[in-house]
Write a structure and sequence with these properties.
single chain; alpha+beta; Aminopeptidase; 2 domains; 11-stranded mixed beta sheet; globular
Length: 354
């Protein structure tokens, strides 16, 4: 297992739902400490700085993952739960989860009324989340409480990182957005040895999945002159998606977000990325999102405004237990990102403001 596989395996298998990122944060800190000066905001985002002069370049990837929170314990020992981040109910039933209780991690299964007991139209409807529960294999509330479970405890998807048959596709949970965090780490590693005309801030933000909260607070610390947000992107190469909806393909190269619900990217920074990709002969894909947003929505509005764009690594099946990404897309994204950062000197950054 090479460095990139090991990094993605450790990051994706770590636990860290919104508001409860301490475990993954400790792992990210371990990777960042040799790479620069470490700082924090006051809600948990981690910031690594390289350099003391030049424009302030912010690279941001969020380290939280979608998950759940225990909301109620029934008399029979089942756990009712609330989502932390956006879940599609189709992907929930039968999946394993880890309840992070005071006395240790507990394995559970997401369940609901058996389909054999559903009648008529009930069978064809998507199960409502309020009708679901977490089953710990326990039969009483008292036993659950003895194990240290209480309302407010976080619940994390249980899924391992694995390399798929072709050796290039990886499957695991939390690629959204541990892949962005990995790109932040690897870019900082690159610039330990390579020249750089700027101050580089690598940021692992918190609570993106519940409203891009760490992006706002970490931008207050960094005060960036320019920002690049690293994310997953939706793949349009699965059955049922039309070309006019998306042409982003797994293995087709990194992607550039042209639009999302909270940000239109800086077009001069966009052109710099496009031109750099052409120079390096890196295939670049384009996407537009009318149903979601990223940390860029907060960062680009910091102070009087920050030229910002979002670069993505195409990933199938995000917001589930089993996302799939392609190693070539990651490697190309990293190469492109490092080349763009190397061009962000004072003159270039000043020229991004229209």
């Amino acid at each position: 297992m090479d460095h990139t596989q090991q990094l993605l395996k450790e990051l994706t298998e770590a636990h860290g739902v919104p508001g409860y990122e301490s475990e993954v944060c400790a792992l990210v800190r371990r990777y960042l400490e040799p790479l620069g000066a470490i700082g924090r905001d006051r809600i948990g985002s981690l910031i690594c700085r390289q350099g003391d002069s030049g424009p302030r370049v912010m690279l941001a990837g969020h380290m939280d993952e979608i998950g759940f929170m225990v909301s109620h314990i029934t008399g029979e020992g089942y756990l009712k739960f609330l989502p932390l981040g956006g879940w599609w109910n189709h992907v929930l039933l039968g999946q394993r989860v880890i309840v992070k209780a005071r006395q240790g991690d507990l394995l559970g299964v997401l369940g609901a009324k058996p389909p054999h007991m559903l009648r008529g139209e009930e069978r064809s409807k998507v199960m409502d989340r309020n009708d679901m529960y977490i089953d710990l294999g326990i039969t009483s509330k008292e036993e659950v409480e003895q194990l240290g479970v209480r309302p407010g405890d976080p619940v994390v998807p249980d899924a391992s990182f694995q390399v798929m048959a072709n050796g290039k596709a990886y499957v695991g949970k939390a690629f959204d957005d541990r892949v962005g965090v990995a790109l932040v780490i690897d870019t900082l590693r690159h610039f330990l040895e390579a020249p750089r005309p700027n101050r580089l801030f690598g940021v692992a933000t918190v609570q993106e999945e519940v409203g891009c909260r760490g992006a706002r607070t970490s931008a207050e610390v960094v005060k960036p002159d320019v920002a690049i947000v690293l994310e997953t992107d939706l793949c349009g190469d699965v059955p049922g998606i039309k070309p006019e909806e998306s042409t982003v393909k797994l293995g087709g190269g990194p992607s550039l977000f042209l639009l999302d619900t909270r940000m239109v990217p800086n077009h001069r920074l966009r052109d710099l990325v496009v031109d750099t990709a052409r120079e390096l002969e890196i295939p670049l894909q384009f996407s537009a999102h009318t149903g979601g947003a990223t940390d860029g929505g907060e960062i680009h509005l910091h102070d009087t405004g920050v030229p910002t764009l979002v670069m993505g690594v195409p990933t199938r099946h995000i917001h589930s237990h089993s996302g799939i990404l392609h190693r070539d897309d990651y490697d190309r994204a990293l190469r492109l990102l490092c080349a763009v950062v190397a061009k962000l000197d004072a003159e270039t950054v000043a020229g991004l403001v229209v």
